[in-house]
Amino acid sequence: MKARLVLACIFCFLLKIHAAEIYPERWVWIFGWGLNKDSDVTDISHVIETGAKHGLNGAVLAAGIDTMSLKTPEYFRGLDAIKQICESNHVELIPAGFSIGYGSCFLAHNPNLAEGLPVEDAPFVVRDGVGRLVPDETVRLKNGGFEDFNGNNLKGFNFHDQPGEISFADREIKHSGTASLRLEHFTANPYGHGRVMQEIKVHPHRCYRVTIWVKTEGFQPTGAFRLLALAPHDRDLAPREYNLPSTTDWRQLTMMFNSMTNAKVLLYAGVWDGKAGKIWLDDWRVEEIGPVNVLHRPGTPVTVRSEDGATTYAEGKDYAPLMDPHLQPWREDGDALPLKIIPSGRIHNGDRLRVSWYHSQNINDGQVTVCMAEPEVYEIMGQEMKVVADRLHPKKFLLGMDEVRMGGTCRACAGRNMGELLGECVTKQMQIIRKYLPDEKIYVWSDMFDPNHNAHGNYYLVNGDFTGSWEHVPKDLVMAVWGGAPREKSLQFFEQQGFPVLVACYYDADNLNDVKGWLQIVRPMSNVQGFMYTPWTRKYGLLPAFGDLLSGQR
Ligand SMILES: [Zn+2]
Q1: Does residue 470 form part of some domain?
Q2: What is the total count of domains within the chain?
Q3: What is the Å distance from ligand 1's center to 415 Cα?
Q4: In terms of domains, do 156 and 129 share one?
Q5: 403-462 pLDDT tens trace
Q6: Is 60 exceeded by the pLDDT of residue 178?
Q7: How far is the CA of 361 from the centre of ligand 1 (A)?
Q8: Which of 340, 359, 378 delimits the end of a domain?
């Protein structure tokens, strides 16, 4: 009996020790503010102070820290203020940046570093000393003006959802001509669909612009409208998001896509997961376009040849460099660049040419990927990392290697094993950081190293497969495993692979149930360094409860 009591006491004692032990890294992700405005600095300070009161000890800040060489004095005043707040609250300031998938820090230095999609051998003709594309006029949508109906059935399209129930000919409200296509009653379809589709023939490796006019009335949700260019096997050639106002008068939407290897494409317009309201579509067009968003760097050469391919002309001798002085790094409207012929060269008026170039691509809503194989990327990072080290002397750094939507398509990276290239990229980034900060602990968003997340083939516009990326990075890289719902398989994968883990959870939920789920899963794991409260909409209301939960855990 006595022995049992002693055992029970020891058990209670161990339990207490266990409960008192907490994760060493309890962080908050600071997102949605700049540092130029006083009000932003006040808001960020409030988050840090609140977190500190509830046991948090790290604040991860992106806010343009990776482009400090381009910042104004106001920015540094804001940064110094945040640094001060962190110090006085005993919160470690952890910088984040150098994203490849959202490449704005590199593109701010050189927009040509965007990953490029190839246009190959587009036919040009020279007139008045300028070469311009001869577009194939047969590439077009039939009945794109939505004029020709039989009742509510559109002519010329492969299908439109539930004519007379969801899709209608509207002769009252139209942008031009005598009719438009109206979509409504989306809940009459189990998927909330209200779509119209036509298969069109295209040329492989060419660039096309799609335009459509839309009008909405009480439309919900506002992100439900999409334009799609699908290749066979459902590959989305131009992933785009349009956040339309719920009610708006006619407005034109534009999308550009590269046909890649495809000779036919399914063009969709319409609604997915629609809930309420109406949307009208009119004047839907597709056209082949000349050089727009042309990239000009070693991995994206412009090639100009004679029509028969026998002569390759020389940039600077036969034609002026095909460069966009206003590249930024993409636009969807405006004219194509003219190919200016140099009079003393070998090209003459009336000549027919074949012109090849590479262009950047906008994904979703302004996301542009940088080419991982272009050496200038690492030169820029070296310059910027020196500023980070000098200014902040951080002990930890979070690399922004998430959601790399493109790669393997320009001459610098085509043919590379994409998993190996991605691993090499992060390894080089780690070496650059440790050149200035030898003992730095380095973290990375985990998705591109996780086969259960984004480290696989058939991923967005990537030509290649990210599988195996995790075999090409050092094992002391801490994986910031992220998401709303707990990712048990991902956590198990990184434990098996021997990587340390930071759990980046929460994701703007209305409660901490998912966070509790993550805590439950990692309880037996010994490689977990800590947790980060990770919102994407400045939703910090649950930060105190999150801090309290973590401080009492483990
Ligand atoms: Zn590339």
Answers
A1: no
A2: 4
A3: 10
A4: no
A5: 999 999 999 999 999 999 999 999 999 999 999 999 999 999 999 999 999 999 999 999
A6: yes
A7: 12
A8: 359
